[in-house]
Amino acid sequence: TLINGDKEAGFSIFWADDGLDTGPILSQKSCPVLPDDTVDSVYNRFLYPEGIKSMAEAVDMVANGTAPVIPQSTEGVSFEPSVRKKSLQKIDWNKNGKDIHNFIRGLDSSPGAWTIIDNTEVKLYKSAIWSNDTPTGDLITVDTLQNPAVVHDNGLLITCNDGLKLNINRLSVDGKMMAASMYGKADTIQETIEFTAEEKALIPIVETIWKNILNMGIENNTHFFQSGAGSMDVVRLIEEIKDKLKLTIKNDDVFMSPIFSDFCNTLIKRSRGTSDEKKHVEYDPVVIEVNNMKLQFAKQLFINGQFIDSESGNTVECINPADESVICSIQCASEVDVNQAVNAASKAFEGEWTEMSPRDRGAIMYKIADLLDKHREELATIESIDSGAVYTLALKTHIGMSIDVWKYFAGWADKIHGQTVPISHARPNRNLTFTKKEPIGVCGIITPWNYPLMMLSWKMAACLAAGNTVVLKPTEMSPLTALKFAELSVEAGFPSGVINILPGLGTVTGRAIAEHPDIRKVGFTGSTATGHMIMKASSESNLKKVSLELGGKSPLIIFDDCDLEKSVRMSMGGVFFNKGENCIAAGRVFVESSIHDKFVDKVVEEVKKIKIGNPLERDTHHGPQNHKTHLEKLLNYCQKANNEGAELKIGGKRVDRPGYYFEPTVYTGVEDHMFIAQEESFGPIMAISKFSGR
């Protein structure tokens, strides 16, 4: 039916005959054939449920004497030769694309349509007509096909000789089923699974199920399909697992793990709430010795669970702000890379991430929190050398608060729900209305450089708890903890494509995220000017939702009845915390005139005690600014304040040492019309104004 391209499929129930299906017809039912239907999809959607129902109806009609006896018509009768012969299973690439598509899907699951790729016999499964643009990927030669095929993120794209494009989802090479997107790539490193005693007790049950289906003894290397199993046996296996073990698995679990030992591993992972095989990810690491520890982290883009180079090959240097040395060069994502990441995130959103229960999503988020805690010192050290954060502060705040955020939102994962409201709660109808909260889809996140890991956590954890997937661009100034997080996310068990990390420039990577039509929401923290551009790009593309956290100028007001010592301490913390690189910094301080001079003198006295130095030293209070451009901006900021008449009491200069160090700075006599009074410095600059309490 499928091979011939029929628009309708169905089944007949015959009266008993000599076994040739030539007896009178008792009942017939049919269904439309969808463009990408396979034997499995028609079976699951129609043949199985309607077949059971119709057989029961047929038995009742026979018992009641109402069963029809309809002679079979000989008009239009045809006989298709069996495709059991291997020669009849080979794909003829000289045919038109529609016929090739029908042939592949007609032989889907078993026995499989085969061709020659790289001098190897390969079977093709799950063909779908492709209407999008040709994606980027690795080119391979397929038998006599005129055009090269493309191995891309979502499969193997074949362009038939008549121009029709077909996307192949799965391949079988040497009897081993694999995702077509993985053809020609190195095998994924799999986690060694330690079974619990209860899990070990499941294995003999699974072995018995396989034995009953295959009618043979089962070894660890027994191959389900090479032992004679077909598509009906897959359905039986799934149903018996569901019946005897109370576990729900999918066809792909069988096809991707056809060897008994692999299948058992997949089954146990399903029972634990995740089936993603990839637990460790390969990459070319940056390895450095610093802070009495060995650091190892990636320098590539993280897309669909893998670290890969940018399509453009462009890189940017990561500079240690403490000594201006180059840590490494990282890959910069292009628009093509963003497209690839969004495709991966879309696939994950439509697939395993939203199929997973909220409780299981929360369990993975708890796992990433535990891993962040386990690697706390390593992450704090990376944050320090990459962003200039004081190490002791990073331990508690940059990393510590990130851990807390992941635990908090992990707890929310299974508590997101709508409401049921009685709108006319009267008999007899008792009408109700209800709301249902659903994930929005792929979210784009663009984070700043002041708290690299914490800003990632604040934005990403909430998205994932709600069931969304993400494409995140960390700042190119401080991307290293985001890339380390990507590595740990694989170990935590996030399915491939749920999290994608793309370092890059705002004008390229950030713009591509804001403009991408398949991203449904964007979150951004940064400058007001950039926020304007993101809002415009988001509205002009697909009216995506936008969350913006932009510049500010928070005030602190101190009256004369204050505790002076405490007020000075709190004011300095509000301005100088994390080198002043805070979006909520109290950069402008209003002090009542009667205590103004005492307050200023005390602040200057305390500022002199601040130790400026290497952020990795345990007694350092004040580290370097994040990057050179920001340091120069602070110097210009102070120059404008001087020109407009603000009085510099202390600081205002670059520290005379290697690194991007800027002295904690205090200005008085600040008036409302001044630049320093209106514009955010985003640095360690306190602007003090006097006011009268009368």
TrEMBL record:
It holds the Pfam family Formyl_trans_N. GO terms for molecular function: formyltetrahydrofolate dehydrogenase activity; oxidoreductase activity, acting on the aldehyde or oxo group of donors, NAD or NADP as acceptor. InterPro entries: ACP-like_sf (IPR036736), Ald_DH/histidinol_DH (IPR016161), Ald_DH_C (IPR016163), Ald_DH_CS_CYS (IPR016160), Ald_DH_CS_GLU (IPR029510), Ald_DH_N (IPR016162), Aldehyde_DH_dom (IPR015590), Formyl_trans_C (IPR005793). The keyword NADP does not apply. Keywords: One-carbon metabolism, Oxidoreductase. GO terms for biological process: 10-formyltetrahydrofolate catabolic process; one-carbon metabolic process. Transmembrane segments: none annotated. The active site is at E549. Residues 197-271 form the Carrier domain. Its EC number is 1.5.1.6. It catalyses: (6R)-10-formyltetrahydrofolate + NADP(+) + H2O = (6S)-5,6,7,8-tetrahydrofolate + CO2 + NADPH + H(+). PANTHER family: ALDEHYDE DEHYDROGENASE-RELATED (PTHR11699). In the N-terminal section; belongs to the GART family. This is formyltetrahydrofolate dehydrogenase. It comes from Sipha flava.
